[in-house]
Amino acid sequence: MKIEDAKFFETGMRSTPLHKLPRVSEELGIALYIKRDDLTGYGLGGNKLRKLDYLVADAVSKGCTTLLTYGGPQTNHGRLTAAAAARFGLKCVMILNGPAPAVATGNLILDRMMGAEVVFMDDSAFAGTPDYAAKAAALKEKATAAVVARYEAAGEKVYLIPVGGSTEIGAAGYIKCAGEMGGQLKEMGVSPDYIFCAYGSAGTYAGMTVGLKYYGVPGELVGVCVSNKTEADILSGLDYINRTAAAWETGLTFTRADLHIEQGYVGPGYNIPDPDTRAASYFMASREAILLDFCYTGKVFRGLMDMVKKGKIPKGSKVVMLHTGGAPGIFSDTHQAACQAELWGGAEVFTL
């Protein structure tokens, strides 16, 4: 099927703004523009709604009544799956990594507000063991089978969505986003040299890779890793990109040389607080009043700034950054504690 013929639901608001960041542009010595996919409208917004446009349409076409997905405790994808389910009258359940926290913060509060069920896979008994991957896979299989059986026994039909909604169907959202962005840039008279986005489960990057070429949008796509990736992981992502291109009959193929993946900005690990990413996020917030989370967009901007500083992005370049949302994660327990230590205390207090 051609991407133009793909069935979709509008789980979020499309045609998100694309605008220049004047103060940051001046300080960095580049022309920096931002595509505001943090403003997709529902469930506090974010990029995953573009994927869910196509995933929810597929689920409904198959008669499914429940969306089941996976992620970390602060999954933005899970939050927006809950939002899409609430809007279209579906049930939502998410199976999350790790033991259940004693206190719900950030996205977990929002998940429950929107009616999602949240269950956990407690891996503490085998964390750090040599066969961790095999045991984690077995635990996921066990949890999935139990949850699906429970919902099916209640008369529901369950639609499984992998981490990040990263399937060929989900990637359609960012093929189309690339076309939308290209139209906006053309209208603005801007021909970018670089386009930056996060590289995590690879769904957004895959869709953008295919879409930018399919719609003839200029600019080199740079994916900034938010978790540690091996070369085998990147090659797996390349295979996913080519499957996506084939699934939507684009006539395109890609090689490893077509991918620009930056791996130096992960910090201590996925969604683990680090001062360099927070500093980049504070820099953006204090100059443009745009909030970048510390798991995804903060790392993207940190990488972008460092590459400008080191001359990898030449001064005067025109750069677009894709803002994929995620701000609720700032209010998770570990990130909030780190911000508290850096930003609070010592305020002047007046009394009568």
- Beta content: 5-15%
Text of the CATH class of the largest domain: Alpha Beta
**Gap between N and C termini:** 72 Å
CA gyration radius, whole angstroms? 20 Å
CA-based shape: globular
CATH topology of the largest domain: Rossmann fold
Sheet having the most strands: 6 strands, mixed
Low-confidence stretches are none
Number of helical regions? 11
Number of strands: 10
Which CATH architecture of the largest domain? 3-Layer(aba) Sandwich
Element order: H for helix, E for strand: EHEHEHEHEHEHEHEHEHHEH
What is the typical, i.e. mean, pLDDT? 97
Main sheet strand line-up: 1-2-10-7-8-9
Please give the domain count: 2
Helical content, roughly? 40-55%
Return the structural class. alpha/beta
Enzyme class: lyase
Organism: bioreactor metagenome
Keywords: Lyase, Pyridoxal phosphate
InterPro entries: ACCD_DCysDesulf, TrpB-like_PALP, TrpB-like_PALP_sf
Structure, explained:
The protein has eleven helices and ten strands. With 352 residues, the protein is α/β, with parallel strands linked by helices. It has two domains: 3-46 and 167-339, Rossmann fold; 48-165, Rossmann fold (3-Layer(aba) Sandwich). The strands form two sheets. A six-stranded mixed β-sheet has the order 1-2-10-7-8-9, sandwiched between helices. Strand 3, helix 3 and strand 4 form a beta-alpha-beta unit. The longest helix is centred in the middle third of the chain and has 22 residues, at 132-153. The radius of gyration is 20 Å and the shape is globular. The N and C termini lie far apart (72 Å). The mean pLDDT is 97.
